[in-house]
Design a protein that fits this description.
Belongs to the V-ATPase 116 kDa subunit family. By secondary structure, this protein is an alpha+beta fold.
Length: 743
Amino acid sequence: MDSFFRSEEMCLVQLFFQTESAHNCINELGHLGLVQFKDLNPGTVAFQRRFVKEVKKCEEMERILRKYIFDKLEQELKEINSNRDTLRQNFTQLMEINHLLKVFDAFLFYPHDRFVAGVIKHERFPAFEKILWRLFHGNFVLRHEDPVKKDVFVVFVQGDQIRGKIRKLCDGFHASMYPCPNNAYARKEMRTNVNTRIEDLRLVLKRTEEFRETTLTAAAANLQEWASKVKKMKAIYYTLNLCNIDITQKLIVAEIWCPVSDLNSVHTALIHGSEQSGSSLSPVVNRIQTQQTPPTFNRVTSFTSGFQSIIDAYGVGNYQEINPAPYTMVTFPFLFAVMFGDCGHGLVMTLLALWLILHQEHFRKLKNELIDMLVDGRYIIFLMGLFSIYTGLIYNDCFSKSFNVFGSSWSVRPMFHPHGPWTNDTLHDSGHLHLDPLVSGVYSGNPYPFGVDPIWNIASNKLSFLNSYKMKMSVIMGVAHMLFGVTLSLVNYIFFRNLKDVALQFIPEVIFMLSLFGYLIFLILYKWCVVMKSESAPSILLLFINMMLFDYSSEGTVLYRTQKPVQIFLVVVAVLMVPWLLFAKPLLLYRKHKQLKFLSLLFCLSLFFGVKKAFVSLQVSMADIFVYQGIHTIEYCLGCISNTASYLRLWALSLAHAELSEVLWKMVLQVALRVTSGMGSVLLAVTFAAFAVLTVTILLVMEGLSAFLHALRLHWVEFQNKFYKGSGYKFTPLSFDRMRDMQ
């Protein structure tokens, strides 16, 4: 369970196996996919390595394989296509003869042997007919039909000389001429034979197409399988180039990084590979101690891989540094939903994600980069949709409309006479009416059970209410999110036993943030809980500004009795945290280095130049420490202010999304709903289609992408920089499964 919240514990292992079993051993490790090989020959160029010839052979095999398969496939396809074209040509001729015989039966009622029959393209027939009339001045009989894309014609003439001229004319127009018997019985026999041959050719053409498809499918399957085997061999020999070979050329030495929990699996795979090769000696696995920084390995599933990719895009975490991905799985879709809060839009997004989840294999076969990105982030989209449904219910917003499930806590009836000041004349004379909660019965005293009261959807001051509510909510969420990030830094300090950073960095950071912005949250919550008139209620923003300026002279700046001394104390404490952050850690390190310097002087008294050199480097490193700590202090103190303001994007984008949704409703769909004429249903159908298209393109795609990017920035900049360094390097094991997925 601990590996879920931080990277896996890794170990450096030395492997010894015989040369004849090396191929099988590495093959087993590649199928296991849990081993990263170290390069034991970093100073050796590529062409001087031991197995460079085998790597080149694999590359040559890839080239030959592609050439062999494609040449062979090309030759087979040429032969198949040539036969298919011949069959199609014969099929076309038989179909033309069949139509020609039909024309004969329709127009030839008595035997006649002076005629020319054939088939000509449809677009050439008018010119052919015109030239016939000009040459023979009507001394012929022409009959034709247009069965498909060609004209079937029969020309009856008186003499053989004219018939010869017509044949030459047909050759000039590239018309196909066919002999036809002038006997009805012979034509019937010929037609029967033609139909039989047509059916045979149809069957042959169908089998030819099936054989062609089978050939292409088999070639594709074999090509992928053979290419995968060659790539696997190439990867094995490339890995062997990272290893060392002893003088006798019989033993291979390798160093690998692997998770401690999978060390037994690695050993088992090596033994299995050695047994396959028939080696007499089992591989030796020796775990060694090292000061090198191991790679970072976070196990992922299909559900968590998308969130881990978001974290790794910011930077791969340091070794065993706390992993933000488990927390991001909750906070990222939630912050997105705060900006995208609409249960209708969230439901559409959830259904889209479910569609991607259920048909992921089909979408991956499309080999489209954009679709692959959506499929990889299908669970992110799914959670964003679910959280958007939740926040939409909190906002009581579904396509800019509200649900009145539990009944509003506000009532209009008590405002009328005799209990209230309203009369019938008040309704006619006033453009806006104000509900007074002090009048008995107007407000029940019990808030709406879940979410925002639906009466605010028809209130004229709806925007002012939601503006104040969402802005303060954004500040509360932002400060809580940042405090959570600072708290996670404490988990890192404790895990790495860095107790001095707990006292010199974590404690002043938390006190600084709580003294100012924790108190700001207290003011917001206190003002929400205390009953006061809106005219006399002080502004939280002015209260906070006056607190920083120590200005208590203006009226209306007091929210509770002991406000002034509490605020002065908190500001003084926050200011004192700045020098604590700035000087405490560098001075402690300076004292420690000064002690080390004194010990080095005693130890190296005779080596004057060496001591002098060490002293200069000590001074430079201390200067770097002071500069680094100063940058960190300034960044943190100013960042608390700027980051808190940055979380106001939750308020801004939430209001923008709600207003855009309301604009689409009022200016598109509501216009069609008000039409009562006979064509109202047609107009409603067209308008609803436009409303759906605009909702998907603007509110779901554009607004969704905008909220996604803003939530991403809040996690990368405002949240993760409080505890996450992200300066490690990723664990890249030898994995044949990953190679196959990348093809």
